Amino acid sequence: MTIYQKYKQQLKIERMSDAPRKLFFRNTSNQPQQQSLAKQGNEQPNQEGNVMPTIQTKELNQLGLDAIQPGELGMQQINVLCLNGVQQFQGMLVATNYKIVFLPQRFLKEYKKDYFEVPYTFLIKVERTIDKKQNDSNQIEISSKDGRQFKYRFQREQSEDCSCLFNVINKNAFTLQKTTLFAFTYYREMQSLENDYQGWKIYNMERDFERMGIIIQQENQQQQLIGLFKYLNNEGGQICATYYNRLVVPAKVDMDCIQKTAKFRSKERIPILSYAFKVDGKIVSLWRSGQCRVGIGQIRSLEDELYLKQMSQQLIDEIDNKQEEIKLRIYDARSDVSSIGQQVNGKGFENPIYYKNCSVDFLEIGSIHKIREVQLKLLKNSYSENISFISQLEISQWYDQIVSLIQGSVRIAMTLTKEKLNVLVHCLDGSDKTPQLISLVQIMIDGYYRTIDGFMILIQKEWINNGHQFCQRSAIGNKQHNDDCRSPIFLQFLDCVYQMIQLYPLSFEFNVKLLLDLAYHHLSSLFGSFLCDSFLEIQKQKVMESTVSIWSWMLKQKDKYKNAFYLNPSSIEFEVIIPESFTGKSIKFWQEYFLNYSTEFNDVYCIHSSSTFTKDNLQEMYKSLAKENQVLRLAQIDHEKLAHLNQQKFNQLIQIIQETKNEKIIEKLESIQLT
């Protein structure tokens, strides 16, 4: 039996038993005695008679790891040289079942404590090479999705250790079997967290539409029209495999029309209702869908045309308008050239000649491939030593895309609130730019989605439930680092929300820490919320029953995300916040994220953390001042009561003396005034 086989066998035994958080590592004879962190164990001969080192154990936190997740186990450790492109560090490399961590012998204060910690699903590229210039030493090079790059150099005699570690990293980082991801291990230790906060149940469709004041007809009430919309059962993906298990559609369309419309839409993603509100006796609605399948031949679907005609209705008893005025505006997130090009693939966009009462506008937003390219340029610039950061930031074009997204969302929001027209938004399949746009629109026009709970619900309903491909876009378990499906769509949306917070700092209940945690954990595989590409996949993989929702974790530490200067929409003159004049001049660089590990941005004195708007600092001060004001108000009330009582007694005294008719005493008392 080889050393690696023995290691795998021992690891399997330890996993089967509910072992405490231990680190399993090997004492190799080539390592200096002073660097070993475990006691020497007994060496046992193998079948060939060779002496093999036994596997030792030691508590992970005794190795110097700052953050150890419940259920995290050590798998291997070895002393290596780490290079980050600027400096080199001597230290110990530790592989757990959640992440790979390098512990330098001397930690430089200009680096953040978690700089060398990389969860496996953050890895986008892992390569093993041999450095001919360094005495044929083995190297493992890793690239992280947030831009960090490390090179671990092993001594020539550590070749077997390098091979073992390389296999451990690949096995944990690039697995297509979701149940092997750390989120499932984390749940076994933290099931009580999910039971206490019920994050998977944060979104309730009926409750959300009731809050909007919109009546939705139940599935079993098809004979009685009580509104413009009705619920549609999509259990098991019977209508659309990438949508939620319950949809809202126009009340007047029958099942035959729905099914034929699904065949005419990309990935069967029919138009579904996302948001609606009442104004001037009418209902204004926001819809989402995939592109239609018109092709080069301009194929028509009478059912799809009828479906959109019913979507344009704003009154229950509304009849067809003979003048055919525009009632539904379709916003295609792509450019007109890109949309026309899709006709070659049998798809395309709606022709207003056939879709009565509709108009089509193009928003000119970049493709997922464009977004991936500009992010790579931005991350390269963020970790570069090049002093021309500003010019390189402009060259990356990341914020050109951010401006396009926000400007497109403004156009949609203005159509809904100013023109009071119904809106349909789609891109290719309606799962990338579409959730970006409709989520930003709802944040702009509804203050509820700017609260902590509301923002969580928004992401759950528009992104997780309705089929944003988190697994593909984040390349969870994907070894092909050049895969075209990978794109930072969700991160781009979070950056847009960051821009909105900078523009309207009093209008958001949450602070930037919430965005930073979402940006980190949608890649970390610590929670089950972002592991799948659809709600149906979440159900099939039993993710809700076997992982913790990120919302449970966030709800537990809700105070951490509170903005102390938040003003409830009822306290703001206008609840709607639409940045109509948003341009490149409005952009603020999101340095808390993109420069998180940059030595130039490192907050050595922790000033930033102590000055952010959290309960622990400014909000605590606010509460203290409010308490003092309350004490002063009570004291003032007591003073007023006492003064009133004294005045009453004084008046009674004057009355008694007046009855004695002593003019001198009466004259002297009348000259006295009580305050």
UniProtKB/TrEMBL annotation:
Residues 29-50 are annotated as: Disordered. This is Myotubularin phosphatase domain-containing protein. It comes from Paramecium sonneborni. Pfam families: Myotub-related (PF06602). GO terms for cellular component: cytoplasm. The active site is at residue 427. Residues 199-594 form the Myotubularin phosphatase domain.
